[in-house]
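Continued from yesterday's entry.
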Amino acid sequence: MSHLSVKSLAFYGSAIALVVLLFKAVTTYGTTMKAPPPIDGRYRITTQNLPGCLNSEKLLLTIQQSGVYLNGSLISVKTAEELAKTVEEKPSLTGKWNAQNQTQPLYLTGSLNEIKECQNQLVSIRGVVNGKTLKGQIKLETIPQIVGFTAEKENPEKSSKQLGH
């Protein structure tokens, strides 16, 4: 008695062909996908006319990136050295990087726990990263106005030296 019938050969041949076609389709689709550009780092905000409790502060926006997902913190430069490790472990802002949105692909929202004068206020930040420059808008929950800002990305070597690493 033969175990190789025409029906079983046709079934196994079809199954193998289907797997090969699915593999080809998935790999073709995968090669057309692109990872979002890396934007993580420390951005020193240079704008002077920030809203409310942020007005008197020199600020640093730290961004951590995992694909399209972002975490970050908005901290005072004078306390940046003290808070750097805490901020990296427990960022207070969360958001996404949406490369499809050409006008403002970066979005972060959360509380300002690291700035004493702004304790527990909610903030939202939207912006566009172009090279080492972040141009965006910042809005505090307690103030109706949206204020534009510009931030420059610090070099990683500079950040490490400032933190004593």
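--- second protein ---
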Amino acid sequence: MKEAKELNWKDVIHYATKGNPAPGRRVEKTAEEWQALLTPQQFRITRMKGTEAPHSGALCSIHEPGKYACVCCKTLLFDSTLKFESGTGWPSFTQPIEYNAIKYHKDTSFGMIRVEVLCNTCDAHLGHVFPDGPAPSGLRYCVNSESLILETEIS
């Protein structure tokens, strides 16, 4: 694992507008290959940029120790020690597990300007990041449960 670099909102905006850090590896599949590997809900969220209803995701209220991986490619994305209760209805984290685990994209859908977060390995849609999280980073990665797998055996 790379040495952790704590990101802040300035870093997020830089990546979203100037380009993302290179991932450690890439996983690319066709839509048909992803559909064969994922549930319909996982496919809709990760590959079609969908979302789940607030407070409906299985990982929203779980606080077990472990690491959260991308449901599509199994890349580690978040550590449970950086998960917090945001009250939004989606799992929330203050930092990715590695600075290059996440890809950032300016999202202007629905008449808003937000920063979409994707798995930097396979481009799976995860959710969005906001600058209203707790100190010290001030970041809140708001992630769909369906896009994550909690790996408790590797914590």
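The chain is about 15% helix and 25% strand. The radius of gyration is 14 Å. Will compare against the first tomorrow.
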